[in-house]
Write a structure and sequence with these properties.
Layout lengths: L1 E8 L5 H18 L5 E9 L4 E8 L2 H10 L6 E5 L11
Antiparallel strand pairs: 1-3, 1-4, 2-3
Helix pairs in contact: 1-2
Length: 92
């Protein structure tokens, strides 16, 4: 499994809409996990740039794109991501 960062253009996204979006992504990933491993990890919203980043763990970018499709979203970009080892020497 690898981490994938998703970038989505999100004009005028308020907190309530962000919460609904995250809930849809979590639900889609959980439902897919019965078929193929995929985990929604977290989101970061950058209102000034009208962009939202979502982090998933999955076998491939295609799996992440499918999670987005099932959540009713079109992802602008999905890229492999690497999280550095923390200062204590462990991962995440």
């Amino acid at each position: 499994m690898a981490d994938f960062l998703v970038e989505v253009y999100t004009p005028r996204l308020d907190e309530a809409a962000l919460a609904k979006l995250v809930a849809r992504l979590k639900a889609a990933a959980e439902a897919m996990s019965a078929e193929i491993p995929v985990t929604y990890l977290r989101s970061i919203h950058v209102p000034e740039d009208e962009t939202c980043f979502h982090l998933f763990e999955a076998e491939s970018a295609d799996v992440v794109y499918e999670a987005g499709r099932r959540a009713g979203l079109t992802f602008d970009r999905v890229a492999a991501a690497v999280e550095p080892v923390n200062s204590e020497g462990g991962e995440r």
